Amino acid sequence: MSLRRLINIRIILSVILILIFSAGIAVWQARKSVEKEVGSSIHLAVQMIKFGFNQLPASSEQNDVWLQKIADIQPVRHLNISIKDNQREIQSKKDFYKGGENSSAPYWFVKAIMIDFSTHSYDINVADGSTKTIFITANPMDEISEAWGETKVFFWSIVLMLLIIFLTVNLVFNSMLQAVKAILSGLRQVEAGNFDHVLPQFKISEFDAIATEINGMSLALNTAQTNNQALARHTMQIQETERQNMSRELHDEMGQSLTAIKAMAVTCQQAETDVNAVTSSIIEICDHLSVVVRSMMKTLHPLSLMELGLGATLFELVSEWQRRSGELQFDLNYDASLDNLSNDITIHVYRIVQECLTNVVRHANASQVVILVIKRDDAVWITVSDNGQGKQLNSSGFGLLGMRERAESLGGQFKLESVCDGGVNVVVQLPYWEDKS
């Protein structure tokens, strides 16, 4: 069920309940009004008749005259006045308003409003010695007709008011649906990868806040996509550069060395060759090749990670940087409980520390760097702090992007804390996975 249909159904049910409640109130008020109005009329008529007969002299002839005048009275609003004796009923010659045949109110309304009024009687002695009785009976049909008219006005006023409210709510809801459609369209654009799509401002503050958040999300995704593309290009460039370096190393070092070894081997086949001198040269060339091969293998992947573990490899890395940068003081604090760390996490820890130290040596102009690699709360925490010149926090260097990408790809966190002329703190949190082997 759509939201529009759900809201319309609830509005209609609410309108029906309001109309039923309003009709009940209207009937109750009309009943009270008719009861009060008709009761007042009867009371007034009884008091007037009593007062009139009390003012007459005590003679039957005067009573007959007075009764005839009462019989000739026009029908009174809310009342029926009749005169009866023992033999017959004497009424006014005018037609009394009876039974509500001419009433405009429907039958159900008359039944709901009608109240049983008591009939008041008054006995009079006439000249022939008989006793006449004046009956005063309520006739509330005029009042009921008026109440019906007022009720219709009240009812249709409620209906008109509810109709206006219904139309207003639908107009407002229609504008809300337009905003929702625009937001959904924007989300589809984001889903399709069109991060440049910008949602417009909305008059409704809540939708405008949602649009602002979606625009911010699109901008963040666009920035992340741009950074990832740049990082991918940089990674491919690094791969090509490493391949070129490796090809050059193989050509310059391995190729030339193997050519030299081959030439020396051919020389050994000749007579009068100083074999000892040639073999010594071959040994020197082989030692040089071993250094070159180990250097290339260390660049590709440090074998000490597999052989000696993370701690020893990190200490070896720090020692190498300490040897290269004599003036820069390195301080490594390593938690030995990380020796059981999974190989998948170990290589990332090593590469992050390696990249941090490279950045410090190249850019920080620092005199001291502190490396902290510990286990805390079932996570690996890496903190590299220096006292150098600092770096802008919005820097988008590929080294920082690479470290962030490593951390986030494992479900970790990367944080750069930097103050100009105050050094840099790189804080990385990685998940702790133990080696199952």
Largest sheet: 5 strands, mixed
Residue stretches low in confidence (pLDDT < 50, at least 5 long) are 87-101
Number of strands: 9
User: What structural category do the secondary elements indicate?
Assistant: alpha+beta
User: What count of domains describes the coordinates?
Assistant: 3
> Outline, from the CA principal axes?
rod-shaped
What Rg, in angstroms, do the CA atoms define?
Answer: 54 Å
Helical element count?
Answer: 10
End-to-end C-alpha gap: 55 Å
List SSEs in N-to-C order.
Answer: HHEEHEEHHHHHEHEEHEE
| Overall mean pLDDT | 78
Range of helix content: 55-70%
Please list the strands of the largest sheet in the order they lie side by side: 5-6-7-9-8
Strand content: 5-15%
List keywords for this structure.
alpha+beta, Heat Shock Protein 90, five-stranded mixed beta sheet, four-stranded antiparallel beta sheet, 10 helices, 9 strands
